[in-house]
Amino acid sequence: MSPRRPDRRSEEAAKAVVQAAMELCREVGYRKLSIEGIAARAGVGKNTIYRWWPSKAAVLLDGLLTTWRTDATFPDTGDFVADIKTQMAAASRILGDPDVFPHYRALIGEAQHDPEIHRALWDSFIGHLAGAAADRIRIAQREGQVRADADPDLVTELLYGAAYYRRLLTPRTADTDHINAIVDLAFTGLAPPAE
């Protein structure tokens, strides 16, 4: 679900607005990004932007959604640990992209006090990925690779929460070694009991 309002008449102008927002955010940062600046760069009136989007965050979210084509499909090699490491490392690389991460971090921050952006970010991006992870965990449970009593949503939060924490709240990066360490450490507590 996009926070954008659907009553746009000019798709070309809308694309110009989104492109201007992405460029300006990259150049001046989210805090200095303004609807006035976006309008000037896109060659439209600010009232036009407000007719189509409720905020600069909504414009930026549309920009990320149009440029970010994230495949939520999990590999299924039959080895859950290897598959989750592969998928988490791929997600971490996307988040590590310097053209993506500053925008995404800004939207995560904005979502903390803007319920509309929070819902749109969940509905259009995060929820889809979390659902795919939970589905893969359910498969691993049926195959006996993850404890049957483990809540798939909680397992998703456990695994991805650690990577998000490092990426969003520390100066360190969530590289492949870090992802592998998260999964290895968590999985020792998730493995089914030995028979």
From TrEMBL:
Q: Which residues bind DNA?
A: 34-53
Top-rank taxon of the source lineage equals Bacteria
Keywords carried by this UniProt record: DNA-binding, Transcription, Transcription regulation
Q: Which residues form the HTH tetR-type domain?
A: 11-71
Which one Pfam family would you cite for this protein?
Answer: TetR_C_11
Q: What SUPFAM superfamilies does this protein map onto?
A: Homeodomain-like (SSF46689), Tetracyclin repressor-like, C-terminal domain (SSF48498)
InterPro entries from the entry? Homeodomain-like_sf, HTH-type_TetR-like_transc_reg, HTH_TetR, Tet_transcr_reg_TetR-rel_C_sf, TetR_C
PANTHER family for this protein: HTH-TYPE TRANSCRIPTIONAL REGULATOR RUTR, TETR-FAMILY TRANSCRIPTIONAL REGULATOR
- Protein known as: TetR/AcrR family transcriptional regulator
Biological source species: Actinomadura nitritigenes
